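pinned: reference chain
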Amino acid sequence: MEFFPWINNIEKLKETLAQLEAKAPALWGKMDAQQMVEHLNLVLEISNGTLDVVIYTPEKYIEKSQAFLMSQEPLPRNFVAKFIPEEPITHKNADLKSAVEVFLNSAEKHQKYWHEKDAENRNHPVFGNLNKTMWDCVHNKHITHHFIQFSLIEALN
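pinned: its structure tokens
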């Protein structure tokens, strides 16, 4: 599967998110559009050094989960990680526009944080301790998954 080309292309993120409407229906799941953007932002904050997290996946499953991460397999629809609440988290930002601005700032911070840090690692709660390449794969899959969820893009095959 081809994933959304956001790496080094914040403009493409801006253009795509400009199409998102607050009342846009999701093809699956319980989140509304703003919650989805805030959810994507949370994962960016983990990767860009803003938030530190523990790894929930038992060590014996890390290799398998990282193999999936590095594959061309998409994230499954309706997947909810054990550490994510069943019900979506309430809005953190005043509105969708504010949430998008925060998200785009976090995406830029991610790019700056990882500039020339190929040897550094940061924890992901599911996939374990990841380097820059692996984090980029996380975001490629994650952003693609949620952009498809809200019909911002079609599945890129």
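why pinned: Residues 10-77+86-149 form a domain with the Four Helix Bundle (Hemerythrin (Met), subunit A) fold (CATH 1.20.120). The longest strand covers residues 122-124.
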